[in-house]
Amino acid sequence: MRKFWSYGPPDTESHYYAPRDNLIERAVTQLVGENPTKGGHYITVWAPRQAGKTWVMQQVFWKIGRQYPQFDVVAFPVQLLRNTPDPLHALRVIARELALKLDLSLPQVNTGDDFAALFSQNVLSKPLILILDEFDALPEEAISTLAAVFRNIYVSRMLQSVPTEEKDYLLHGLALIGVRAVLGIENQSGSPFNVQRSVRIPNLTPDEVRYMYHWYERESGQPVAPEVIERVYYETRGQPGLV
After folding, report:
1. I need a surface site. Which of 115, 161, 198, 204 has the fewest CB within 10 A?
2. What is the pLDDT of residues 187-238, one digit of tens each?
3. Contact 88, 122 (CB under 8 A)
4. Rg of the chain's alpha carbons, rounded to an integer?
């Protein structure tokens, strides 16, 4: 029988979960684009801890991989870089992860321009959708440097009226996951990442909470009084980890 789980993303084969299909489809559409031949969007995905950000984006990652073979999809966390004082080191580590995930031999990264070149026609074999988890754990200077590079790539792509696979840069879609929207970063020059769209991961709705408890009832044979389910929602406000 399945279990309720609050220690990281739930396993859909072992744990109770709310499918959140509409939310997942919305994020997929943002990254792939309403017209995938033109280009996707660069988005932030944000919510408090234990709200299900990582799980939702895992489902997005797998869904894009199954349904859109014309794209490479790469996802990895960057929280281990939280104490990195040098933005260039952060760029190099992310470049190394890209090389491992895509089985590529990438050029050395010594500047922001070198990092941007990793997403060019000369390096990538097809359009890429990149998902960076725990992005807001990076030091502010590293966030600003990366956001500036991604913004320049996005603007460059927008100025080209050719199919996505023929653009100079092949970073088709980008998701930056964290507890706050990157658009709100405070720094002396302001946030350079003003092209992004924001996807907030909301708490569970009353119907989603009922769905999981009714699922438990069917599997266990143990009834749960409706007033208990309502009380759980009232006390937790639908916060997934607490539910």
Report:
1. 161
2. 444 444 555 577 889 999 999 999 999 999 999 999 999 999 999 999 999 9
3. no
4. 20
